Structure formats: C-alpha cells, structure tokens
Amino acid sequence: xxxxxxxxxxxxxxxxxxxxxxxxxxxxxxxxxxxxxxxxxxxxxxxxxxxxxxxxxxxxxxxxxxxxxxxxxxxxxxxxxxxxxxxxxxxxxxxxxxxxxxxxxxxxxxxxxxxxxxxxxxxxxxxxxxxxxxxxxxxxx
Length: 141
Prior knowledge:
By secondary structure, the chain is mainly alpha-helical. The chain contains 7 helices and no strands. The chain has helices spanning 3-17, 22-34, 36-55, 64-73, 80-101, 105-117, 125-140.
C-alpha cells in the first residue's frame, strides 16, 4: 500500500458505499485505473458484501430504514422507568457484592457524604471513590 493509497482510503470507502460526490468518484476511479492493490481491495470488499447479502434471508420491513435514520438523528432520552430500574438493579448488585465481601453497608453509606464533600472537582471523583473503597477493602482483608 502506497502513501497515495493511504490518503485515498477514506474516499475509497465513500465511493464503495455509493456516498461519494462527483469529484471523489472521479478521483477514486482515476486512482483505481493504475493501482492493483486498491483494485484487489475493492474486489475483496465486493466479495464480502455479496456474501453478507446472500446470507441475509430476511429483508427489513418496509419503512425500517427511514425509521432507523429518524431515530438515530433524534436525541436519546431515557425514561424515568428505565432510570429507576437501572438504579434499583445497581443498588441490588452493590448490596450483593458488599454482602459477599463482608463489607458493612452502614459503613459505606456513612462514608458517601465524605466522598462527595471531599471532591475538589468531578474529574477526580472516581479516583477518590476508588481510594475510599480500597481503604474499606484493605481493612476487611
């Protein structure tokens, strides 16, 4: 692969997917005339694409692609129900781990305000939590 091939690789992807503008199409076609490496690469991609198409026996429902594009462009909102379930499962898992390790949940809950108040900035919060957890685990061991 030459330096020219490395430079044109992103445009080669666009051209192969059919998303390239006219200038990019001409540039890629000009490059492909003389580059055996990129010709082989395109042939491999074509073979892979054909194999994938052949292996898919079920077509997408009508309007699926438009619906998918619309959902990808919308901001992702999480419902309160999802947040509640996530929070509850996280707490149950934390309690199980604490019980399994023999750590007192009372001690953990008492230290939470200390963890939060001792934070200088949110960027160091995980490091301080890990330090506090390590101290608790070290006392246990």
